[in-house]
Amino acid sequence: MTEEQFRILSEAQDFVSDLFANKVDKAIHFHTLQHTQEVLAGCETMADYYHLDDEDRFALMLAAWFHDTGYSGGQAMGHENLSVELATRFLTEHRVHQNVINKVIGCINTTRLPQNPTSLIEQIICDADLFHLGTSDFKDKNKLLREELNDFGKLELSKKDWRKKNIEFLTKHNYFTSFAKEHLDPLKQVYLQELNKKAGIEEKPDKKQAKDAKEPKPALVAKNEKPKDKGLSADEQKKLDEVKKKKEKESQSERAISTVFRIVAQSQNNLSQMADSKSNILISVNAIILSIMISSVFDKLKTDTYLQAPFTILVVVCVLSMVFSILATRPNVTSGTFTKEDIASKKTNLLFFGNFHKMGYTDYDWAMTELLADKNYLYSSMIKDTYFLGIVLAKKYKFLRIAYNIFMYGLILSMIAFTIAFLTPGATEIYSQ
Fold first, then answer.
1. DSSP helix/strand/coil, 51
2. Contact at 8 Å (CB) between 11 and 94?
3. Alpha-carbon span 68 to 59, nearest angstrom
4. CA distance 203 to 211
5. What gap in Å lies between CA 178 and CA 173, rounded to an integer?
6. 370 or 15: whose pLDDT is higher?
7. What distance in Å separates the CA atoms of residue 195 and residue 187, rounded to the nearest whole number?
8. What is the pLDDT of residue 210?
9. Phi then psi dihedrals of residue 372, to 5 deg
10. Which of 160, 187, 203 is the last residue of a domain?
11. For 379-410, how does the pLDDT look when each residue is reduced to its tens digit (9 = 90+)?
12. Do 284 and 193 belong together in one domain?
Protein backbone atom coordinates (compact mmCIF):
# COMPACT_ATOMS: atom_id res chain seq x y z
CA MET A 1 0.00 0.00 0.00
CA THR A 2 1.01 3.62 -0.44
CA GLU A 3 2.23 5.97 2.28
CA GLU A 4 -1.05 7.91 2.01
CA GLN A 5 -3.10 4.74 2.54
CA PHE A 6 -1.02 3.85 5.59
CA ARG A 7 -1.52 7.37 6.94
CA ILE A 8 -5.31 7.15 6.53
CA LEU A 9 -5.37 3.72 8.18
CA SER A 10 -3.37 5.10 11.11
CA GLU A 11 -5.82 7.99 11.51
CA ALA A 12 -8.74 5.56 11.24
CA GLN A 13 -7.19 3.50 14.04
CA ASP A 14 -6.93 6.62 16.24
CA PHE A 15 -10.50 7.67 15.42
CA VAL A 16 -12.02 4.24 16.12
CA SER A 17 -9.94 3.72 19.28
CA ASP A 18 -11.13 7.05 20.67
CA LEU A 19 -14.72 6.18 19.76
CA PHE A 20 -14.63 2.87 21.64
CA ALA A 21 -12.86 4.45 24.62
CA ASN A 22 -15.27 7.36 25.07
CA LYS A 23 -18.61 6.67 23.34
CA VAL A 24 -19.29 2.93 23.47
CA ASP A 25 -21.34 1.67 26.44
CA LYS A 26 -19.28 -0.17 29.08
CA ALA A 27 -21.99 -2.87 29.16
CA ILE A 28 -20.72 -4.03 25.76
CA HIS A 29 -18.33 -6.88 26.52
CA PHE A 30 -17.87 -8.61 23.16
CA HIS A 31 -18.09 -5.93 20.45
CA THR A 32 -15.17 -4.01 21.88
CA LEU A 33 -12.01 -2.47 20.43
CA GLN A 34 -10.30 -5.80 21.04
CA HIS A 35 -12.88 -7.56 18.85
CA THR A 36 -12.29 -4.96 16.14
CA GLN A 37 -8.54 -5.56 16.32
CA GLU A 38 -9.09 -9.32 16.12
CA VAL A 39 -11.32 -8.88 13.04
CA LEU A 40 -8.59 -6.71 11.54
CA ALA A 41 -6.03 -9.43 12.24
CA GLY A 42 -8.24 -12.04 10.59
CA CYS A 43 -8.70 -9.79 7.55
CA GLU A 44 -4.95 -9.28 7.27
CA THR A 45 -4.30 -13.00 7.49
CA MET A 46 -6.73 -13.75 4.68
CA ALA A 47 -5.63 -10.72 2.64
CA ASP A 48 -2.11 -12.18 2.67
CA TYR A 49 -3.47 -15.62 1.86
CA TYR A 50 -5.36 -14.34 -1.22
CA HIS A 51 -2.70 -11.77 -2.23
CA LEU A 52 -5.19 -8.91 -2.43
CA ASP A 53 -4.22 -5.84 -4.43
CA ASP A 54 -3.61 -2.54 -2.62
CA GLU A 55 -7.07 -1.07 -3.20
CA ASP A 56 -8.97 -4.14 -1.98
CA ARG A 57 -6.66 -4.53 1.01
CA PHE A 58 -7.06 -0.84 1.87
CA ALA A 59 -10.87 -1.03 1.66
CA LEU A 60 -10.94 -4.27 3.68
CA MET A 61 -8.78 -2.81 6.49
CA LEU A 62 -10.94 0.34 6.67
CA ALA A 63 -14.12 -1.74 6.81
CA ALA A 64 -12.63 -3.87 9.59
CA TRP A 65 -11.89 -0.77 11.65
CA PHE A 66 -15.36 0.77 11.17
CA HIS A 67 -17.67 -2.26 11.02
CA ASP A 68 -18.74 -2.08 14.72
CA THR A 69 -18.40 1.67 15.34
CA GLY A 70 -22.20 1.88 15.14
CA TYR A 71 -22.36 0.53 18.70
CA SER A 72 -21.40 4.07 19.75
CA GLY A 73 -25.01 5.00 18.98
CA GLY A 74 -26.21 2.95 21.95
CA GLN A 75 -28.09 0.25 20.04
CA ALA A 76 -27.10 -3.16 18.71
CA MET A 77 -29.94 -3.57 16.18
CA GLY A 78 -29.07 -1.83 12.95
CA HIS A 79 -25.72 -0.59 14.21
CA GLU A 80 -24.33 -1.19 10.71
CA ASN A 81 -26.24 1.86 9.46
CA LEU A 82 -24.39 4.16 11.85
CA SER A 83 -21.13 2.34 11.09
CA VAL A 84 -21.60 3.11 7.39
CA GLU A 85 -22.44 6.73 8.20
CA LEU A 86 -19.34 7.18 10.36
CA ALA A 87 -17.08 5.49 7.82
CA THR A 88 -18.47 7.51 4.91
CA ARG A 89 -18.03 10.79 6.77
CA PHE A 90 -14.46 9.93 7.82
CA LEU A 91 -13.40 8.73 4.35
CA THR A 92 -15.00 11.70 2.60
CA GLU A 93 -13.16 14.12 4.90
CA HIS A 94 -9.90 12.33 4.05
CA ARG A 95 -10.68 12.50 0.31
CA VAL A 96 -10.69 8.75 -0.24
CA HIS A 97 -11.75 7.70 -3.74
CA GLN A 98 -15.44 6.93 -4.07
CA ASN A 99 -14.72 3.45 -5.42
CA VAL A 100 -12.94 2.58 -2.15
CA ILE A 101 -15.77 4.12 -0.10
CA ASN A 102 -18.30 1.96 -1.95
CA LYS A 103 -16.26 -1.16 -1.20
CA VAL A 104 -16.04 -0.21 2.49
CA ILE A 105 -19.81 0.36 2.65
CA GLY A 106 -20.42 -3.00 0.98
CA CYS A 107 -18.15 -4.79 3.44
CA ILE A 108 -19.79 -3.21 6.49
CA ASN A 109 -23.33 -3.91 5.26
CA THR A 110 -22.54 -7.54 4.51
CA THR A 111 -21.64 -8.20 8.16
CA ARG A 112 -25.37 -8.00 8.98
CA LEU A 113 -26.92 -11.30 9.95
CA PRO A 114 -27.71 -13.29 7.92
CA GLN A 115 -24.55 -12.53 5.98
CA ASN A 116 -24.73 -12.40 2.19
CA PRO A 117 -21.35 -11.41 0.69
CA THR A 118 -20.97 -10.93 -3.07
CA SER A 119 -17.22 -10.26 -3.44
CA LEU A 120 -14.05 -11.78 -2.05
CA ILE A 121 -13.34 -8.93 0.38
CA GLU A 122 -16.94 -9.12 1.63
CA GLN A 123 -16.50 -12.86 2.19
CA ILE A 124 -13.24 -12.20 4.05
CA ILE A 125 -14.71 -9.66 6.47
CA CYS A 126 -17.73 -11.91 7.12
CA ASP A 127 -15.46 -14.81 8.04
CA ALA A 128 -13.12 -12.54 10.03
CA ASP A 129 -16.09 -11.17 12.00
CA LEU A 130 -16.90 -14.73 13.12
CA PHE A 131 -13.29 -15.94 13.17
CA HIS A 132 -13.58 -16.96 16.82
CA LEU A 133 -16.11 -19.69 16.03
CA GLY A 134 -13.27 -21.83 14.74
CA THR A 135 -10.55 -21.01 17.24
CA SER A 136 -9.65 -21.94 20.80
CA ASP A 137 -11.11 -18.57 21.91
CA PHE A 138 -14.67 -19.68 21.11
CA LYS A 139 -15.75 -20.46 24.66
CA ASP A 140 -14.33 -17.26 26.17
CA LYS A 141 -15.78 -15.08 23.39
CA ASN A 142 -19.10 -16.87 23.63
CA LYS A 143 -19.25 -16.10 27.34
CA LEU A 144 -18.53 -12.42 26.68
CA LEU A 145 -21.27 -12.28 24.04
CA ARG A 146 -23.83 -13.75 26.43
CA GLU A 147 -22.83 -11.22 29.11
CA GLU A 148 -23.23 -8.43 26.55
CA LEU A 149 -26.68 -9.62 25.52
CA ASN A 150 -27.72 -9.84 29.17
CA ASP A 151 -26.20 -6.51 30.31
CA PHE A 152 -26.55 -4.38 27.17
CA GLY A 153 -29.42 -6.15 25.44
CA LYS A 154 -31.41 -6.87 28.64
CA LEU A 155 -32.28 -10.40 27.43
CA GLU A 156 -31.49 -12.41 30.59
CA LEU A 157 -30.54 -15.57 28.74
CA SER A 158 -30.10 -18.70 30.83
CA LYS A 159 -27.28 -21.14 30.06
CA LYS A 160 -29.77 -23.60 28.58
CA ASP A 161 -31.38 -20.96 26.34
CA TRP A 162 -27.97 -19.68 25.29
CA ARG A 163 -26.85 -23.19 24.41
CA LYS A 164 -29.91 -23.67 22.21
CA LYS A 165 -29.25 -20.37 20.42
CA ASN A 166 -25.63 -21.37 19.87
CA ILE A 167 -26.61 -24.74 18.43
CA GLU A 168 -29.11 -23.09 16.12
CA PHE A 169 -26.61 -20.42 15.01
CA LEU A 170 -23.68 -22.79 14.46
CA THR A 171 -25.89 -25.23 12.55
CA LYS A 172 -27.04 -22.53 10.11
CA HIS A 173 -23.69 -20.74 9.85
CA ASN A 174 -21.31 -21.42 6.97
CA TYR A 175 -17.92 -19.89 6.28
CA PHE A 176 -17.54 -18.36 2.82
CA THR A 177 -13.81 -18.38 2.06
CA SER A 178 -11.82 -21.52 1.32
CA PHE A 179 -9.32 -20.38 3.98
CA ALA A 180 -11.95 -20.38 6.71
CA LYS A 181 -13.47 -23.63 5.53
CA GLU A 182 -10.08 -25.31 5.77
CA HIS A 183 -8.69 -23.71 8.94
CA LEU A 184 -11.73 -22.69 11.01
CA ASP A 185 -14.72 -24.86 10.12
CA PRO A 186 -13.31 -28.18 11.48
CA LEU A 187 -12.99 -26.83 15.02
CA LYS A 188 -16.34 -25.06 14.75
CA GLN A 189 -17.92 -28.44 13.97
CA VAL A 190 -16.25 -29.88 17.06
CA TYR A 191 -17.80 -27.15 19.22
CA LEU A 192 -21.20 -27.77 17.62
CA GLN A 193 -20.97 -31.49 18.39
CA GLU A 194 -19.95 -30.75 21.98
CA LEU A 195 -22.93 -28.41 22.39
CA ASN A 196 -25.28 -31.01 20.93
CA LYS A 197 -23.83 -33.58 23.27
CA LYS A 198 -24.32 -31.34 26.32
CA ALA A 199 -27.86 -30.52 25.27
CA GLY A 200 -28.62 -34.25 24.94
CA ILE A 201 -27.11 -35.12 28.31
CA GLU A 202 -28.89 -32.34 30.15
CA GLU A 203 -32.33 -33.10 28.70
CA LYS A 204 -34.31 -34.26 31.76
CA PRO A 205 -37.04 -36.92 31.20
CA ASP A 206 -40.52 -36.41 32.64
CA LYS A 207 -41.52 -38.15 35.89
CA LYS A 208 -43.23 -41.12 34.24
CA GLN A 209 -40.22 -41.78 31.97
CA ALA A 210 -37.86 -41.40 34.92
CA LYS A 211 -39.87 -43.90 36.94
CA ASP A 212 -39.98 -46.52 34.15
CA ALA A 213 -36.51 -46.03 32.82
CA LYS A 214 -33.78 -48.38 33.91
CA GLU A 215 -30.29 -47.28 34.73
CA PRO A 216 -28.06 -48.47 31.88
CA LYS A 217 -24.87 -50.19 32.81
CA PRO A 218 -21.70 -48.35 31.87
CA ALA A 219 -19.92 -49.86 28.89
CA LEU A 220 -16.56 -51.42 29.53
CA VAL A 221 -13.71 -49.47 28.01
CA ALA A 222 -10.35 -50.99 27.27
CA LYS A 223 -7.42 -49.64 29.25
CA ASN A 224 -5.88 -47.74 26.33
CA GLU A 225 -9.12 -46.99 24.50
CA LYS A 226 -10.69 -43.53 24.79
CA PRO A 227 -14.46 -43.42 25.40
CA LYS A 228 -16.51 -42.44 22.38
CA ASP A 229 -18.65 -39.28 22.28
CA LYS A 230 -22.32 -40.13 22.69
CA GLY A 231 -24.72 -39.59 19.86
CA LEU A 232 -22.12 -39.62 17.07
CA SER A 233 -21.91 -42.02 14.15
CA ALA A 234 -18.69 -43.85 13.39
CA ASP A 235 -17.80 -41.43 10.57
CA GLU A 236 -18.56 -38.39 12.73
CA GLN A 237 -16.52 -39.84 15.59
CA LYS A 238 -13.60 -40.49 13.23
CA LYS A 239 -13.75 -36.96 11.87
CA LEU A 240 -13.95 -35.51 15.39
CA ASP A 241 -10.93 -37.54 16.49
CA GLU A 242 -8.96 -36.39 13.44
CA VAL A 243 -9.75 -32.73 14.11
CA LYS A 244 -8.80 -33.07 17.78
CA LYS A 245 -5.54 -34.80 16.86
CA LYS A 246 -4.74 -32.08 14.33
CA LYS A 247 -5.42 -29.30 16.84
CA GLU A 248 -3.44 -31.11 19.51
CA LYS A 249 -0.53 -31.55 17.10
CA GLU A 250 -0.64 -27.86 16.16
CA SER A 251 -0.72 -26.91 19.85
CA GLN A 252 2.22 -29.18 20.62
CA SER A 253 4.13 -27.75 17.66
CA GLU A 254 3.56 -24.16 18.85
CA ARG A 255 4.65 -25.09 22.38
CA ALA A 256 7.76 -26.75 20.98
CA ILE A 257 8.58 -23.67 18.90
CA SER A 258 8.13 -21.31 21.86
CA THR A 259 10.28 -23.61 24.03
CA VAL A 260 13.08 -23.61 21.45
CA PHE A 261 13.05 -19.82 21.15
CA ARG A 262 12.99 -19.42 24.94
CA ILE A 263 15.92 -21.79 25.47
CA VAL A 264 17.97 -20.15 22.71
CA ALA A 265 17.24 -16.67 24.09
CA GLN A 266 18.24 -17.70 27.63
CA SER A 267 21.43 -19.35 26.34
CA GLN A 268 22.42 -16.30 24.32
CA ASN A 269 21.64 -13.99 27.23
CA ASN A 270 23.84 -16.08 29.53
CA LEU A 271 26.69 -16.06 27.00
CA SER A 272 26.37 -12.28 26.63
CA GLN A 273 26.54 -11.81 30.40
CA MET A 274 29.61 -14.06 30.56
CA ALA A 275 31.35 -12.03 27.83
CA ASP A 276 30.57 -8.76 29.62
CA SER A 277 31.84 -10.20 32.92
CA LYS A 278 35.11 -11.38 31.33
CA SER A 279 35.60 -8.00 29.67
CA ASN A 280 35.06 -6.18 32.96
CA ILE A 281 37.63 -8.43 34.68
CA LEU A 282 40.20 -7.74 31.97
CA ILE A 283 39.57 -4.00 32.04
CA SER A 284 39.93 -3.92 35.84
CA VAL A 285 43.17 -5.98 35.86
CA ASN A 286 44.79 -3.85 33.17
CA ALA A 287 43.71 -0.64 34.87
CA ILE A 288 45.34 -1.82 38.12
CA ILE A 289 48.58 -2.76 36.33
CA LEU A 290 48.71 0.59 34.55
CA SER A 291 48.13 2.56 37.74
CA ILE A 292 50.87 0.62 39.60
CA MET A 293 53.33 1.00 36.71
CA ILE A 294 52.73 4.69 36.32
CA SER A 295 52.95 5.44 40.04
CA SER A 296 56.06 3.32 40.78
CA VAL A 297 58.14 3.16 37.59
CA PHE A 298 57.36 6.32 35.63
CA ASP A 299 59.62 8.57 37.74
CA LYS A 300 62.58 6.19 37.31
CA LEU A 301 62.51 6.24 33.51
CA LYS A 302 64.61 9.42 33.32
CA THR A 303 67.48 7.88 35.28
CA ASP A 304 66.98 4.17 34.55
CA THR A 305 66.78 4.30 30.77
CA TYR A 306 67.03 0.51 30.50
CA LEU A 307 63.41 0.35 31.81
CA GLN A 308 61.95 2.44 29.00
CA ALA A 309 61.55 -0.40 26.46
CA PRO A 310 59.86 -2.98 28.77
CA PHE A 311 57.77 -0.25 30.39
CA THR A 312 56.53 0.90 26.97
CA ILE A 313 55.73 -2.68 25.91
CA LEU A 314 53.70 -3.32 29.06
CA VAL A 315 51.78 -0.05 28.74
CA VAL A 316 50.94 -0.74 25.09
CA VAL A 317 49.80 -4.28 25.97
CA CYS A 318 47.55 -3.04 28.79
CA VAL A 319 46.05 -0.25 26.67
CA LEU A 320 45.34 -2.54 23.68
CA SER A 321 43.86 -5.19 25.92
CA MET A 322 41.55 -2.60 27.50
CA VAL A 323 40.56 -1.18 24.08
CA PHE A 324 39.47 -4.58 22.73
CA SER A 325 37.69 -5.40 26.01
CA ILE A 326 35.75 -2.14 25.71
CA LEU A 327 34.92 -2.90 22.06
CA ALA A 328 33.51 -6.25 23.20
CA THR A 329 31.07 -4.53 25.58
CA ARG A 330 30.38 -1.31 23.68
CA PRO A 331 26.67 -1.12 22.66
CA ASN A 332 25.71 -0.45 19.07
CA VAL A 333 22.35 1.34 18.74
CA THR A 334 20.69 1.62 15.33
CA SER A 335 18.61 4.48 13.91
CA GLY A 336 15.52 3.57 15.94
CA THR A 337 12.98 4.36 13.21
CA PHE A 338 10.87 2.42 10.71
CA THR A 339 8.35 3.22 8.01
CA LYS A 340 4.95 1.75 7.30
CA GLU A 341 6.40 0.18 4.15
CA ASP A 342 8.98 -1.61 6.34
CA ILE A 343 6.18 -3.17 8.39
CA ALA A 344 4.12 -4.03 5.31
CA SER A 345 7.11 -5.75 3.69
CA LYS A 346 8.02 -7.36 7.05
CA LYS A 347 11.56 -5.97 7.04
CA THR A 348 11.68 -4.47 10.55
CA ASN A 349 12.29 -6.58 13.65
CA LEU A 350 10.16 -4.96 16.35
CA LEU A 351 11.50 -7.31 19.03
CA PHE A 352 14.75 -5.30 19.15
CA PHE A 353 14.53 -1.88 20.82
CA GLY A 354 17.10 -0.38 18.46
CA ASN A 355 14.57 -0.52 15.62
CA PHE A 356 11.81 1.53 17.29
CA HIS A 357 13.19 3.62 20.18
CA LYS A 358 12.71 6.90 18.27
CA MET A 359 9.16 6.12 17.09
CA GLY A 360 6.00 7.47 18.71
CA TYR A 361 3.82 5.16 20.80
CA THR A 362 0.94 5.24 18.28
CA ASP A 363 3.17 4.07 15.44
CA TYR A 364 4.75 1.39 17.63
CA ASP A 365 1.35 0.18 18.87
CA TRP A 366 0.09 -0.09 15.30
CA ALA A 367 3.24 -1.90 14.17
CA MET A 368 3.11 -4.39 17.07
CA THR A 369 -0.56 -5.08 16.33
CA GLU A 370 0.44 -5.89 12.76
CA LEU A 371 3.26 -8.13 14.01
CA LEU A 372 1.14 -10.07 16.52
CA ALA A 373 -1.64 -10.55 13.99
CA ASP A 374 0.70 -12.26 11.52
CA LYS A 375 2.16 -15.53 12.86
CA ASN A 376 4.66 -15.79 10.00
CA TYR A 377 5.87 -12.23 10.59
CA LEU A 378 6.15 -12.94 14.32
CA TYR A 379 8.18 -16.12 13.80
CA SER A 380 10.32 -14.34 11.21
CA SER A 381 11.05 -11.54 13.70
CA MET A 382 11.96 -14.05 16.41
CA ILE A 383 14.29 -15.83 14.00
CA LYS A 384 15.90 -12.51 13.01
CA ASP A 385 16.27 -11.54 16.65
CA THR A 386 17.96 -14.86 17.44
CA TYR A 387 20.23 -14.61 14.40
CA PHE A 388 21.41 -11.04 15.01
CA LEU A 389 21.91 -11.74 18.72
CA GLY A 390 24.19 -14.54 17.59
CA ILE A 391 26.06 -12.11 15.31
CA VAL A 392 26.53 -9.69 18.21
CA LEU A 393 27.73 -12.53 20.45
CA ALA A 394 30.25 -13.64 17.82
CA LYS A 395 31.56 -10.08 17.62
CA LYS A 396 31.79 -9.84 21.41
CA TYR A 397 33.77 -13.06 21.74
CA LYS A 398 36.01 -12.17 18.79
CA PHE A 399 37.11 -8.92 20.46
CA LEU A 400 37.32 -10.66 23.82
CA ARG A 401 39.60 -13.36 22.42
CA ILE A 402 41.85 -10.72 20.86
CA ALA A 403 41.99 -8.86 24.17
CA TYR A 404 42.94 -11.98 26.12
CA ASN A 405 45.55 -12.96 23.53
CA ILE A 406 47.11 -9.50 23.67
CA PHE A 407 47.11 -9.60 27.46
CA MET A 408 48.54 -13.13 27.69
CA TYR A 409 51.29 -12.87 25.05
CA GLY A 410 51.96 -9.23 25.82
CA LEU A 411 52.45 -9.98 29.50
CA ILE A 412 54.94 -12.73 28.63
CA LEU A 413 56.76 -10.39 26.24
CA SER A 414 56.85 -7.65 28.88
CA MET A 415 58.29 -9.98 31.49
CA ILE A 416 60.98 -11.13 29.03
CA ALA A 417 61.74 -7.51 28.20
CA PHE A 418 62.07 -6.60 31.90
CA THR A 419 64.33 -9.60 32.48
CA ILE A 420 66.59 -8.65 29.58
CA ALA A 421 66.65 -5.04 30.75
CA PHE A 422 67.70 -6.00 34.25
CA LEU A 423 70.44 -8.26 32.88
CA THR A 424 71.98 -5.64 30.62
CA PRO A 425 75.47 -4.41 31.66
CA GLY A 426 74.22 -0.91 32.37
CA ALA A 427 71.53 -2.12 34.73
CA THR A 428 73.96 -4.49 36.46
CA GLU A 429 76.43 -1.68 37.06
CA ILE A 430 73.76 0.58 38.52
CA TYR A 431 72.65 -2.06 40.99
CA SER A 432 76.25 -3.02 41.88
CA GLN A 433 76.96 0.59 42.81
1. coil
2. yes
3. 15
4. 16
5. 15
6. 15
7. 12
8. 45
9. -70, -20
10. 203
11. 888 888 888 888 888 888 999 999 999 999 99
12. no
